[in-house]
Design goal:
This protein has 205 residues and is of the alpha+beta class. The protein contains four helices and twelve strands. The chain has helices at 61-75, 103-113, 152-164, 175-183, and strands at 18-22, 26-34, 38-47, 53-54, 57-58, 80-85, 90-97, 125-137, 140-151, 168-174, 194-196, 202-204. The strands form four sheets. Strands 3-2-1-6-10 form a five-stranded mixed sheet, sandwiched between helices. A three-stranded antiparallel sheet has the order 7-9-8. Strands 4-5 form a two-stranded antiparallel sheet. It is globular and about 55 Å long.
Length: 205
Amino acid sequence: MFPSLRKPTRSKHSAPVCGLHLEQSEAIAAVARLEDGLVVQRAAAVDLPLGAVRDGEVIDPEALGHALKRMFTEHRLPKRVRVGVANQRTIMRTIDLPPLERHAEIAAAVQMHAPDHIAMPLDQAVTDHQVLGLVDTPDGPRMRVVVAATDRESVERLLDALRRAGLRPAGLDLSAFALIRALHDRAAEDAVLYAHVAGTTTMAI
C-alpha cells in the first residue's frame, strides 16, 4: 500500500523513520524533524552497483540490499524507512465519485471507477487513495479522490531489497508527494512547480 497518502498518526514515543530515495547510481537516506519547517538531522548516501536500480525500479534486490545494509550500518541510521517511489509504472489520478460518507463505500467506489482512469490491471497493482473532499461540478456535488497505483511486482522487488538490508518499511510514498511536503511554501497563493532533476526527474504542481 501507499500508507503515506493517509494522514499519519504521530506519537512522541514513536521510533524515528528514515526517508530513503533511490536513484540509478546512488541511494540517499535522511532523518528529519518538523521544527519551524523541515530540519534534516542526519543524512547519508552510497553508490549503487550498476544495474541494481533502473528507471526508478529495483532490478537486483540482492545488490541493492547489500549496499543499503552497508550504508545504514556505517552511518547508524534508523532501520524503519519510508521509501519514495517514482517510475513509469507508477500512476496518480484524481477522480470524482458520487457523494459518499462511509470509508468502506468510498473504497468500494474507488475500486469500481479506478480502472477507467488507471491503465493497468488492478489485480497486478498496489493501490491507495486519499479523499480530498466534496467539490462542485457541472453534474452537481462530487467526492474528489486522489488514487495512486504502482506495479505490484516492482514493489515486491523493493520490499525484498529492504528485507535483505535488515530494514523495516514504514511506508511507500509517491516521490512527488514527498517533494511537495519537503518544499511546500504555505504562504504561496499561486500554483508552484516543484522539480527534482536527477537520474529520474520528478515534477509536481
